[in-house]
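The methods section describes the discrete structure representation at length, but only in general terms. What matters is that the chain and its backbone geometry are given together, residue for residue. For illustration, here is how one protein appears when written out as sequence plus structure tokens:
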Amino acid sequence: MVDANDNIKLIDFGIAGQQGARRLTFAKLSQVMGTPDYISPEQVKGKRGDGRSDVYALGVILYEMLAGKTPFQGPNPFAIMNDRLLNNPVPPREVDPTISQELQEIIYRALERDPKNRYANAHDMAVDLKHPDKVGVAERPELHDWRKRRTPWLRKILFYIMLALIPVVIFGLLLLFAKR
């Protein structure tokens, strides 16, 4: 939360202790990396987050409040994080046409994959939320190509090739040892 003096206050650690909550940890590390629904793309890639990562999480929360679901979906945390890196969310106005174009633009600015294109800080986002009529609406490709879902197809192909090669390698080794 941001108070009247623009100080950030951490108010809820419920997800950290919530039983069954989706969260990620790395082996041999005890700290929580983040929840897959709210973690920024740069953090998914293993880079260090900053204030813009928090702006990203705010964008996810705003999207969720307006659309009734998080912008990226998947059957497991890794699929959700992968979806975030490869695909665009359903535009909020597709879910609820009463959402203004300006509010949708604010959400998209907060959810930019590249942190350089995101709001620099929560204060800048708050100014736009306070004065949405002053927000310029950009023509975004995300508004049109969100139905195109990309998957890491090259990885899938390589995985199946490697899977198919396992019996071939085993058979080859068996033949090699049988000849000796």
